[in-house]
Amino acid sequence: VDDFTAAKIAIVGTGAIGGFYGAMLARAGRDVHFLCRGDYAHAREHGLAVTRVDAADFTLPEARVYPDSRDIGESGLVIIATKATANAELPAILTPLVGPATTLLTLQNGMGNVEFLERHFPDNPILGGLCFVCVNRTAPGVFENSIPGGGTVVIGAHRHAGEADAGAAARLFSGAEVKAKASASLDEALWRKLCWNVPFNGLCIAAGGVSTAVVMESGTLRALARQLMEDVRAGAAAHGHAIEDGFLQKQFEATDGMGPYRPSSLIDYEAGRPVEVEAIFGEPLRRGQAQGALMPRLETLYYLLKAICPAP
Amino acid sequence: VDDFTAAKIAIVGTGAIGGFYGAMLARAGRDVHFLCRGDYAHAREHGLAVTRVDAADFTLPEARVYPDSRDIGESGLVIIATKATANAELPAILTPLVGPATTLLTLQNGMGNVEFLERHFPDNPILGGLCFVCVNRTAPGVFENSIPGGGTVVIGAHRHAGEADAGAAARLFSGAEVKAKASASLDEALWRKLCWNVPFNGLCIAAGGVSTAVVMESGTLRALARQLMEDVRAGAAAHGHAIEDGFLQKQFEATDGMGPYRPSSLIDYEAGRPVEVEAIFGEPLRRGQAQGALMPRLETLYYLLKAICPAP
Hints:
The structure is a homodimer. The first copy, chain A, is α/β, with parallel strands linked by helices. Chain A contains 12 helices and 12 strands. Chain A starts with 7 loop residues before the first strand and ends with a helix.
């Protein structure tokens, strides 16, 4: 396993996450090809641009963008950054990109994505990457990284891929000025990531369409955010992963630094787009409950979100 | 204690509940005086009207309505049917109505109302009445009773009043073609009433502004309604009241009969008026938790409602 430095890299989904990380990789000289559907015409003409809160902005006027994955063809590393709500469309999109030596890396939110990929590509190494970052697509082809330090990507291996692959993928990102590290347990990393996504993606919608700052500044919503983290922790514990108090505390500190951030789920909700309710809320609830964990607040939030968010 | 048949009766708040029950009492020949502020001019000219789903409609063209409680004066029975969110205004409104021999009966939703009255009128008998009914104010001075059979009023005594007073008040209603009964425990009756109000008033708002029929027809919202009832039952149990499975089941059967009913809290919420979040959700949560009950779903719902409903 090399570190994918020389690999042909396909970015599937040039939204906030795919656009930002793909642009960072391309800027570092990697061979990056963007599948870019909605913004294709704009990106073809103007390229892609990244704005950063504490580093220089940059543009990639010649970014290689494509409207169809068949125009990209077989790649060494396929990075998936579409919404989990659109997974049903993924196999047809991925098939032209995936050959026997292709590694798949999903940067999608929530649980169930690596298993979904495994069902369709059982012979390929599959990695999951958790993006602890604040990125928004602020205009066609423009991606804004609004968290000081640029966030971190944690990469772990699903069954068929080994730790070496996760380490190589982490080095690929590190080599492009993105903080990244490999995790020995993708499952644990997913549960940890949900300690943020469940309370903040959830409450920012269910509390009436508010930013993270409103949750942080309300005594009761902040308390509820902590209780929801405890539910996620109970699910993680039932799966053998101990999450320490300090980690939960760090989530609050990191969120304080975000200001009035609007999580991607809230942006999707307000735009009338499907929200990743199953990946972020439903699937962890089911997995925790299957192991006997009590997660009553997560269950309440999940049922409410299911009711108020448009179905995919 | 007589049965209030000859008493001067003041109705404080001629909204859905006060208008409907006051009209039923006036129609039966009782000496009823309506404090009617918003709809005063209309009611003065046109009287009050009741429409019923399975009984004859009627009007009271000469209903005695007043814009100010000082025009009514001291009464034998004061029936309070204002929103609990407006309790701060109540003492000034009630003072002209209350003498040493006055009995107070609150028909307000939720917990804390009898204690509030007791603080301000510690020497008067205080009763609480729970209205298991569907009534809406459909136009100025027009009250629609949409539940077959007309519902039931359960009346219990707070500390200073005895069971005899509750029985007398129940007979007053029974004598006006309103099904009514006295309860030996107002506290238990309040917990039982909340088995409906918590899930249905709550979810109809928090699930995005939906009728009870939407909650009943959604597998997950219906399950959540049942779980919320279990939380209320846990609070009741912690206060020594055993609520049987059959009672919870009956709440679902009764709700099936309501069709697409919009609870009063939802109507208030959608009109931008304050919602009785503390009386229906906050106070029972605090009382249950004070006795060690676990009510995590009610707590989640309460915090969300607090965030999305306008403050009084």
